[in-house]
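Homework-ish question, so no full write-ups if that breaks the rules, but can someone show me the predicted structure for this set?
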Amino acid sequence: MNATALVPLPVVLPLFGAGLAFALGRSARAQRVVSLVVLALMVIIAAVLVYRADTDGPQVMEVGGWDAPLGISLVADRLSALMLLVSAIVALSVLVYSLGQGVVEYGPDTPLSVFHPTFLVLVAGVANAFLSGDLFNLYVGFEILLAASYVLLTLGGTGERIRAGTTYVVVSLVSSIIFLTAIALTYAATGSVGLAHLAGRLDELPDGISLLLQLMLLTAFAIKAAVFPLSAWLPDSYPTAPAPVTAVFAGLLTKVGVYAIIRTQTLLFPDSALSDLLLWAALLTMLIGILGAVAQSDIKRMLSFTLVSHIGYMVFGVALASDAGLSGAIYYVVHHIVIQTNLFLVAGLIERRGGSTSLERLGGLARLSPVLAVLFFVPAMNLAGIPPFSGFLGKLGLMQAGVDNGSPLAYALVVGSVVTSLLTLYAMAKAWNRAFWQAPNPVGPRETTDMHRKPVRTDSPEPAGRVAAVAMRGALAGPAAALLAVGLAMTVFAGPLFALTDRAASDLRERTPYIEAVLPGGAP
Amino acid sequence: MSANLTLVAVVGVLFAAGVYLLLERSLTRVLVGVILIGNGVNTLFLVASGPAGRAPIVGLNDVDDMSDPLPQALVLTAIVITLGVTAFLLAMAYRAWQLHEHDDVQDDVEDALIRRRAERDEASSSYDDSAGGTMDEEGTDDASEAASRADLAASAGPEGEAR
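A: Not a homework solution, just the prediction itself:
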């Protein structure tokens, strides 16, 4: 069996599914079936790709039949395939969750027909960004997913979402423009946009020019990944979107930026002059992000700040540029995609159950809904990095890599990451205490003076039977529980997973497997 | 490599004007800025492609005379993407106008809340007032917590926070 034929499918299938879902816009049921089938297929394909990339090396597909330096190549190496698998799993869970929530959130003010096609386009864009073998295709992937995310973020066009959307769209546009300018300059300097091709050619450039290109690419990706000085847009724009949308954004979109940083830093600029700058950025991202989280009184906003903060861990691993550092970073990315999505889904459940996500309005949820308490507690502790969980393992790997590095700045980062973990624990414990543990708020959880958003209507517009209600609740809690299980599985299978990320990291450091797979005859 | 100076100057002007407009509050001006910079980048691709030549069609022209086809393909893609994004921004500006009678980019409500709280010294009980409060030029009224919240909720209506 030849796996290269599978490589373009994660991009093509969702796009095809999006078109089909649009055509079937009148039937919500048909749309659901299409989305579910497409995303389930994607999980299977991505799993096969991970296996093939691990055993046979990078799988390359030359789209359009032209060979590498001329044509567009899609490459699935260990890193991209792994990212693809995790994002497919997350996307599938979020889709199931949004089906459960669908009638309420997407009912009266937003046409149902928009959500499914847009969601599939988003997934296609993410897959394209992971698989693309050249800079311009990466840009196209970014634009596909961004265009879809603009629509999802402003679903319904309420005043609050338009406000949040404006910031998000303008910031994303700026980063896209910087990225596109960087591509134009790269092409002017080297005459190529293929990543594998560039890897050789950038080495021959004068230092100043390649440094400029590196800085521009890094700036563009850092905005998307929300690395500290460029992260202010994120906590303002994410929390207003519907819960499943925020969840998939938090899980996937920033990680695409992180993936792009990992890919370009290792492949194009292996002897980076900017690693000290990246280490500082990582430290500040961690600390300032988590200080922001501690100050928040709303669960969704707090989670958005922890998202920013934990991007710092990944940048830390990338900046170390050692095998151990990269391996830790990849493991942490995989862990964080699952956990952060999980937490945002649970935040959506809390909003449904308690009528708000503001910690000042919530209380006593542990008695009202013990299952929800567990669903929040486990991923929250996982995020904080309590020992048996995968968050601990990822952080431990990164800290070991930092100690191996041995420079004073690396030690400062190790200390910084411990402090960040403790503060994350504090923020999570505070949220858990206030929302679940303390006595119910005397004002009552359903008091609607909450300024953050209108109360969520918990009644279904169409009077559904008891069975349907139970099925709906299952569709909501099921994905959260499934992601929780995936997070736990990352602890149980940490050995094989870390072995895989180790191999992926050494691939990235060696560069040759990727370059030889794309350009079999060597660069012309 | 020889670069066309006129084109470089055009790129510079488009970028400068675009960045200036991007920094405006009104979404419509931001949109115009995006369009200008978008065209600036497209022109930059033309500069990157080197000297102009004949149409890159094999069999029609000699290979040595052809201009570089790849940047043209990239620019076409970029133009389509800019078109789509522009349409979306335009729709968003119109929707903002529908809702608020203006299309200004607004401040975040929660940020404003935290700022007000800092002004009122509510965040920290250990804050030493005699050390010189730098942040309470406006929020000196000693309204109760509940009143201030209600007040904020009212002022955070469609108009957003005062800028």
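Now go work out the reasoning yourself. Hint: The mean pLDDT of chain A is 82.
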